[in-house]
Automatic annotation (TrEMBL):
Domain of life: Bacteria
Transmembrane intervals: none
GO molecular function: acyltransferase activity, transferring groups other than amino-acyl groups
InterPro entries per record: Acyl_CoA_acyltransferase, GNAT_dom
Domain N-acetyltransferase: 4-156
Species name: candidate division WWE3 bacterium GW2011_GWC2_41_23
Name by which UniProt lists this protein: N-acetyltransferase domain-containing protein
Amino acid sequence: MEPALIPPKDTTELETAYTFADNILNFDATHPRNLQFYKNVYAKNPEYVLVFKPAGILEGVIFSSDQDTETLLIGELAVSETARGKGIGSKLLLAMEEVARKHGKKEVLLGALGDAENFYIRHGYLPKLFVQVKGNDRLEEIAALSSALVMWKSTGDGYSKVVFDTGKIDKELQNKFEEKLGAHTQFLFSKKIDYPQSNNASSSSVSW
């Protein structure tokens, strides 16, 4: 990890990083991963938050948390407008993948909108369509609109939710769910974490 790309040195710098991201991404007031959420994350795993500060100037941040024991969830990635086009977003993403590898994760997961979708595709992330509609027990109604593989589904608390393995960013399918069911939709992106085999492991697999 290059010297300019490090965890915040303390909670004050963490607060600055969060405000930086908020100013760029315009968090909703009900944003679930708020500052207190990331203070708790930072207290346990400081490197789950990384800042890019060449010459001491904050130009980019990335925040993550544990989705579960095997998956790291990237919540927010933000780069200042004046610093875009320099590969900073890629540096932040690759650095966080290395953090995931260090913590023994098998996968990185995130959600993205608009232009960011193609950014993650270019970095080897695979798209999956998340669909949520109001009302319990509407899973069959959701599944009937697509032949894509259902990877996950859940119903309860007034909502029915399904994740489809679309294999691509299918805007036509996304619009169909929104128009016909009034669904909330978002493409999720996942990437498996590779672990290079050790020399010992490689040697032991060879028969002489």
